[in-house]
Amino acid sequence: MTDGEPSYIDYETFLDPNFSPASFANSLVISTNNANDSPLDLSTPLSRVLFDLQEIDTHIHTLTTKSALPLLTHTREQTGSGQRVVEQVEEQVASLTSGYQRLEKEVLRKWEAAEEARVAAENSWATVRLARAVARCLSLGRQLEGQLAELSGRGSTRQDHKILSDAAYAIVSLRRLLSATGEGEEGYGLDRVKVVRTLRNELVIPAENTVTTRTQQIINRFSMSTLLAEENGGSAGSSTYKQALDAKARVISAITTLYILSPAPRPKTPASEYRPELLLSTLQGYMHTSLTTSLSALTKALTMLPTLERTLVEISARCQDIVALETILGTLRPPTHPLLESQTPPPKELPTTAQDTEKPFQSPSDQAQSGTVTTTTTTTSSSSSSTTDNLLQPLLQSLDTSSLPSYFWRSLASSLRSRVHDIVSRGGVSARTLKSNGDRLRAELRECVLRGSQLPAASVLGREKGLSKRDATDQPVVVGNWEREAAVMVGAVVNTLGK
Fold first, then answer.
1. Which residues contact 333 (CB under 8 A, 6 or more apart)?
2. Distance between CA atoms of 391 and 332, rounded to whole angstroms?
3. Could you give the CA distance from residue 59 to residue 50 in angstroms, rounded to a whole number?
4. How far apart are CA 240 and CA 458, in angstroms?
5. Torsion angle, CA of 283/284/285/291, rounded to 10 degrees?
6. Distance (Å) of CA 63 to CA 11, 58, 71, 468
7. Which residue in 100, 168, 193, 220 could disulfide with 260, CB within 3.0 to 4.6 Å?
């Protein structure tokens, strides 16, 4: 109550936070009625509640009437204060708006202009970079097209193996550029340029197939007859020797070209881990062809003994081709591959002569068969370096052999054993003739192996290895010990005849 006016209403009960209307009504009904009365009298508690409400309403009206002026005054003061605060806030908002507009004009719009310039610069740089890549592709394509024209013999006197070497480097450069299409790489976006796609489909891929086919043909047609040089003097001898050197350079270029054109390695692959699959498959195919041809010819000659001598001469010539190939591979270091990780920059032109790529070399055939080789303990680093010191080692590893002639004779003997067994099983004149000429077969097979495992002294490779020495009977001196291979060949034929 205000001003200490007495009141019978218990305001504390109504103002209690835990006030419950139901509990208050229940207590009011109980206090105004007798608990034993059957019908309850609700009019009395209801009248009391209504009277209390009238009392409270009267009290509120009295307080409002007495305090109207102070309330209005207080409200007016609060309204005035709020209005002044709003005016101050509006002034600050106007100041902030003006500052923002000034900053927007001085900074934001300039930033937007700078952002547009940046985007334009990035697009221009991407265009320039793409244009440079396209120009480089077209330049390499024009260079490759000219090399293919020279290769076909139109208006050029250059040796074709040199053209193949240059074309191989152009193809690999194009391959590297066309494969670097990741974001930020040199060839990014080239796959979306139509002229580049046309260049790849109509020039690069056919050119790579052409160069690969030509180089494989050079290796498949390799023979010692192309490396023979006459010993007599005069212009004819000099011309023949020059032709032999050119033939050797042709084979070296073909081998190196296939090494370069082998499937691209993974990025940042060290040269020591690179396997030139195209080169290895071509050389393995050459070995397989020699073995297959020799096996077929020797099987036929064993059934027609008068032709045996000529057939053995041909087989020994094929093995001499393999010995010559082994010698050439042993003198060649792996060329610098543009796609391999190397500390030295790639050469501008592929070496095409033996002097450019050769180093002093003793073939595995000479090392394995001679009795002067001493066994030494090598470290892991030295053994790993020896496997990549020349192009012969990857081929020997793929064939799981120590030398190519040994692989040739042992593989030939392994396949020949079943053929001889078939001839003996069929019987007839051929089988009886073979059994009656066992000593002749033994001597001729041994001579074939020893002759085929040596380089002819008249060849370019024979001269370089110093094989022009002759014994008292004017026969070439045999280098190395090939008796084991001879015994394997003799055993494959003669021993099978006795079973």
1. 357, 359, 389, 390, 391
2. 6
3. 14
4. 11
5. 110
6. 15, 9, 11, 141
7. 168
Torsion angle, alpha carbons of 233, 238, 239, 244, to 10: 110
How far from each other are the two terminal CA atoms of the chain, in whole angstroms? 139
Asked if 190 and 196 touch (Cβ cutoff 8 Å), the reply is yes
Convert the pLDDT of each residue in 166-175 to its tens digit.
899 899 888 8
Distance CA 424, CA 415 (A): 15
257: closest CA among 217, 226, 288? 217
Residue in this structure with the two tokens 């001085």, named with its chain if needed:
106
Give the Cα separation of 453 and 327 in Å (integer): 12
Predicted pLDDT of residue 369: 44
DSSP state of 415: H
Of 264, 391, 255, 394, give the one whose Cα is nearest residue 339. Answer: 264
- 123-132, 173-182, 378-387: segment of lowest average pLDDT: 378-387
C-alpha to C-alpha distance for 148 and 210, rounded to whole angstroms: 9
- Tell me the average pLDDT across 73-100: 91
pTM: 0.66
Instruction: In whole angstroms, give the CA distance from residue 138 to residue 173.
Output: 12
Q: Which helix (H) or strand (E) holds 280?
A: helix 277-303
Summarised one tens digit per residue, pLDDT across range 99-123 is 888 888 888 888 888 999 999 999 9
Phi/psi for 377 (5° steps) reads -85, 125
Chain centroid, CA 304 distance in Å = 53
The number of beta carbons lying within 10 Å of the beta carbon of residue 390 is 21
Three-state DSSP at 188 gives: coil
279's tokens = 């080169």
Q: What is the separation of C-alpha 78 from the centre of its chain, rounded to a whole number of angstroms? A: 81
Structure tokens at 156: 């050029």
Give φ, ψ of 459 to 5 degrees.
Answer: -80, 160
